[in-house]
Amino acid sequence: MVIFDTNTILRYILQDVQDMADIAEQQLSETGCYVPAEVVAELVYVLNKVYKIDRQIVAKTLDDFFEMRNVSVNSHNVVNIALDVFADTKLDFVDCMLVGYAKIESYEIFTFDKALKKCLNS
Prior knowledge:
By secondary structure, this protein is mostly helical. The chain has a domain at 36-120. The chain is built from seven helices and three strands, in the order βααβααβααα. Helix 3 packs antiparallel against helix 4 (55-66) and helix 5 (76-88) packs across helix 6 (93-105). The N and C termini lie far apart (37 Å).
């Protein structure tokens, strides 16, 4: 399994540089890919803030990508929760990951952030 970086996944999802998208698709079908949580966070940021894609669409698009047969995601269940929270709130994605860790791994999250506390207690 090969780690795909943010740029590779963006080219595959956006299909904006066709030759790169085709190469990414070929690599994905041949070897699959592993996506670390750090890459997930950068993907969310770039899609939402740089490409101005709506939070719900970002979450759905990434969820669909991560459900592909040849894609493996670090802390997949945590990422799934984080994407759901991201779609439904205004929290930044790192805070959404913290919610995921609290819900999936039962970690206690210590924070002064009122919005994060509210989400953790809901």
